[in-house]
């Protein structure tokens, strides 16, 4: 036997074993890495509930807020109390020019703390209401709703695309008003219908990276959204309850868990879907 060849074979085998060891170690490290979700408008209402529910699934969370830092800090503290990491950043989703700065700030923070600038899930939740008949809507009002609910969603997602990990996901928030019509919600409902179609395009174009895109359409929810109309106006609340199969208006807890589910491996085969969580409004 040629002992030189035997030694070479033994050396190659050891090298292969070492490379397999390093590969398995890397895979285990990747599997053990805590995933990260960014939720816009996470200081109140559905965004707050979604951020907390996502953290309960074992993810770290970044939230954005438009103006109320005190409320955002409360959400962060509540998440941190569960043992998960969280941090808030100010963001007005109307201001597309500010997105690059946000992404750099978020990326710098993540790189310093995790070694990567990437997130796993982007939840486009931030929004505001508009109740006005078509005959009275102004150009400024329409532009404001489009900027927040469509343009902001489109460009924030676009800017984050290089920094969403393969196998991650995008969750957009729509509304039951994209399916049924109520007087005064023409602009809001129409723009949300656009978000639903945009979500399908996201799913189609990002599938090659195994990134899922889905849209959740809540019914009327008892929050401070729209001045708290669903929560505080008994006539409105009674009308909603009477037209909902489950017999009441929705609560933030009815939505946050659905968002959180889409930020888990259990939802890995769901993409391009509209999921309505309305308790069966106007069936």
Keywords:
Rossmann fold, 48% helix, 15% strand, alpha/beta, single chain, 283 residues
Could you characterize what this model shows?
It is a single chain. With 283 residues, the protein is of the alpha/beta class. The chain has 2 domains: 32 residues; 243 residues, NAD(P)-binding Rossmann-like Domain (Rossmann fold, 3-Layer(aba) Sandwich). Helix content is 48%, strand content 15%. It is built from 9 helices and 7 strands, in the order αβαβαβαβαβαβαααβ. α3 links the parallel β2 and β3. The longest helix is centred in the N-terminal third of the chain and has 30 residues. The radius of gyration is 23 Å and the shape is elongated. The protein starts with a helix and ends in a 6-residue tail after the last strand. The mean pLDDT is 92.
Summary of the model, kept short:
The chain has nine helices and seven strands, in the order H-E-H-E-H-E-H-E-H-E-H-E-H-H-H-E. It has 283 residues and is α/β, with parallel strands linked by helices. The protein has two domains: 1-32; 35-277, 3-Layer(aba) Sandwich (Rossmann fold).
Which term fits the overall shape? elongated
Provide the β-strand percentage band. 5-15%
Helix/strand-derived category reads alpha/beta
Rg is 23 Å
Largest sheet: 7 strands, parallel
- So how many helices? 9
Q: Return the CATH topology of the largest domain.
A: Rossmann fold
Strands of the widest sheet, in order across it, are 3-2-1-4-5-6-7
Unreliable runs:
none
Give the total of domains. Answer: 2
């Amino acid at each position: 036997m040629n002992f030189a060849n035997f030694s070479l074979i033994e050396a190659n085998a050891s090298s292969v074993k070492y490379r397999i060891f390093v590969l398995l170690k890397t895979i285990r490290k990747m599997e053990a890495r805590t995933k990260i979700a960014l939720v816009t408008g996470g200081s109140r209402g559905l965004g707050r509930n979604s951020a907390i529910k996502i953290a309960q699934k074992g993810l770290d969370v970044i939230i954005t807020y438009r103006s109320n830092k005190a409320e955002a800090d409360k959400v962060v503290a509540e998440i941190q109390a569960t043992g998960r990491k969280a941090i808030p950043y100010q963001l007005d989703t109307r201001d597309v020019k500010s997105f690059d700065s946000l992404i750099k700030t978020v990326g710098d923070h993540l790189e310093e703390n995790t070694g990567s600038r990437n997130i796993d899930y982007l939840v486009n939740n931030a929004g505001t209401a508009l109740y006005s008949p078509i005959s009275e809507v102004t150009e400024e009002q329409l532009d404001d709703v489009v900027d927040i609910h469509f343009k902001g969603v489109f460009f924030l997602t676009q800017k984050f695309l290089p920094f969403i990990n393969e196998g991650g996901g995008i969750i957009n928030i729509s509304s039951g008003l994209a399916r049924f019509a109520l007087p005064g919600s023409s602009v809001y409902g129409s723009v949300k219908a656009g978000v639903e179609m945009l979500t399908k395009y996201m799913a189609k174009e990002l599938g090659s990276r195994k990134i899922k895109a889905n849209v959740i359409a809540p019914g009327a929810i008892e929050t401070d959204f729209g001045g708290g109309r669903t929560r505080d106006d008994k006539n409105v609340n009674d009308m909603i309850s009477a037209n909902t199969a489950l017999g009441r208006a929705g609560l933030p807890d009815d939505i946050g868990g659905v968002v959180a589910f889409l930020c888990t491996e259990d939802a890995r085969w769901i993409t391009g879907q509209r999921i309505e969580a309305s308790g069966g409004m106007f069936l």
